[in-house]
Write a structure and sequence with these properties.
- The chain is 73% helix and 2% strand.
- It is built from 18 helices and two strands.
- The longest helix has 43 residues.
- Helix 2 packs across helix 11, helix 4 packs across helix 5 and helix 8 packs across helix 13.
- With 468 residues, the protein is an all-alpha fold.
- The chain starts with a helix and ends in an 8-residue tail after the last helix.
- It is globular and about 65 Å long.
């Protein structure tokens, strides 16, 4: 590989920031207070450790498979080697819903957050969808952001990674300022009544588990790396380690932010913040510095988190579409590369257009889509974990630069945990069960997938499902 091509590929730092940035979105700003109120400061930290363990097993599976089959497409490639065309189609169609759902949700979240910084931002009321008001200025900012981030990705994965690196540095810097300020200006007395929530061990454990159930959903995103495996210039064994490391880094970040909030705000202040702005982390920053400006700086860090997650999932989604198109599972045109930048520009443009269209349906619709996306991600993780176990037997001699020890235990745990999360979405009455609208969206997405599968099988015949 010549130096020019190497310079266009992802290096070690790029891989870390793409994976970490995908997992650190807006949740650390908007959800920390709710987590603490639900299970306490230490309870939340334990919950994220438990959630991290769930994702850790899946991460180990991805680490081995990515280094054994380093091709663009990730989950699509793994599942096709293990289960053939049908299994691969189901797996990849699911992860595409996951990626597109996140992209659409972040596109909506970005302009919504701006109004926290600039209260007079919303101008030109248009209409209301499910209680969410759509304004001209809101739409314009969102559309321009969609076009810009899509264009950056068309210019190449390296260009997107540079943006990711800059934004991740801002997130890390803002987060560290909050943590250090809390250690200096916070007080251990603030933790009184906030370490755990509940009376009795059973109630405490129940509250911890309720947060642990949703914690994995804030750790999705490391899987975007395998989607662009061919665009990474790192020794394969090291790449596997970086995937696992990025998960540990995200868990540590969430844990430190939660501790900083609890150490900086007492129970009464936290409740007041939840009933006020709802942005407890930002309010903690304002209190620690006695400055509303610092709250807005922290919100700016959260906006960077939205952008990094958006950027990462756009990379992952476009490569998943490209991989399916290259195997003639969807129209072949979507694997077409840009002449200059060698990126799947039509796949990127398609996702960009879908994200712009989604904006006109408001935030409630996108909340439904994002929940469907989380279910789809869990389903993909389950299929990939099963692929991991099957390939250890089916292709036992496949070179595995990053080889997982005790593979049966790891594979079974990854399958059971991801499968359990899938079931939690489908069983009514759980903390994350899908409502009717979300079930309808999931069914419609399935029908569209069946339409593509039948149509492309008829059109491309023997080429359908062909490995590159």
């Amino acid at each position: 590989m010549d130096n020019k091509n190497k310079s266009k590929k992802l290096n070690t730092g790029d891989v870390i920031v793409v994976a970490f940035g995908a997992m650190i979105g807006w949740g650390w700003v908007v959800s920390s207070g709710g987590w603490i109120q639900q299970s306490g400061v230490i309870g939340t930290i334990l919950a994220f450790l438990l959630g991290g363990i769930m994702i850790y097993f899946v991460g180990l599976v991805y680490a081995e498979l990515t280094t054994a089959l380093p091709e663009n497409g990730g989950a699509k490639v793994f599942s096709q080697h293990a289960f053939g065309t049908i299994g691969s189609f189901i797996c990849t169609w699911s992860i595409i819903l996951s990626y597109i759902g996140v992209v659409c949700f972040e596109a909506c979240s970005f302009p919504t957050i701006i109004q926290y910084i600039f209260p007079g931002f919303l101008k030109g009321y248009l209409y209301t969808v499910a209680g969410f008001d759509i304004y001209v200025t809101w739409l314009l900012v969102a559309i321009i952001s969609c076009v810009l981030i899509t264009y950056i990705n068309i210019k190449g994965v390296k260009t997107a990674a540079i943006l990711q690196k800059l934004l991740t540095i801002v997130i890390a810097a803002v987060g560290m300022v909050l943590i250090i300020a809390s250690l200096i200006n916070g007080d251990s007395s603030n933790l009184e009544g906030q370490l755990f929530v509940g009376t009795g061990i059973n109630k405490i454990l129940g509250n911890v588990l309720s947060v642990a159930m949703v914690a994995p959903f804030f750790l999705f995103g490391f899987d975007v790396i395998p989607q662009a495996a061919e665009e990474i210039n790192i020794p394969l064994k090291k790449l596997g380690k970086l995937i696992v490391f990025s998960i540990a880094l995200a868990v540590a970040f969430y844990g430190m932010v939660v501790f900083a909030v609890g150490y900086g705000m007492n129970k009464i202040e936290l409740v007041m913040s939840l009933h006020g702005s709802g942005l407890v982390t930002a309010d903690a920053m304002a209190k620690l510095f006695h400055s509303e400006v610092m709250a807005k700086i922290l919100i700016l860090g959260g906006m960077c988190g939205i952008a990094t997650s958006w950027n990462s999932f756009l990379i992952g989604g476009s490569r998943a579409l490209e991989s399916m198109a290259s195997s003639y599972m969807i129209p072949h045109v979507f694997c077409k590369k840009h002449k200059k930048y060698q990126t799947p520009y039509l796949s990127l443009i398609l996702i960009g257009i879908l994200s712009i269209i989604s904006l006109f349906f408001g935030r409630q619709m996108l909340t439904w889509i994002s929940n469907c996306a989380s279910f789809a991600c869990c389903l993909t993780y389950c299929i990939v974990s099963l692929s991991f176990l099957r390939l250890r037997k089916k292709e036992a001699n496949l070179p595995r630069p990053y080889k997982v020890k005790n593979y049966r235990f790891v594979g079974i745990m990854a399958t059971m945990l991801s499968g359990f999360l899938c079931m939690m979405y489908l069983i009514p009455g759980t903390v994350c069960s899908m409502i009717d609208q979300e079930l309808i969206i999931t069914v419609l997405w399935t029908i569209v997938g069946i339409f593509f599968a039948i149509g492309c099988k008829v059109k491309y015949r023997d080429k359908f499902g062909k490995l590159g």
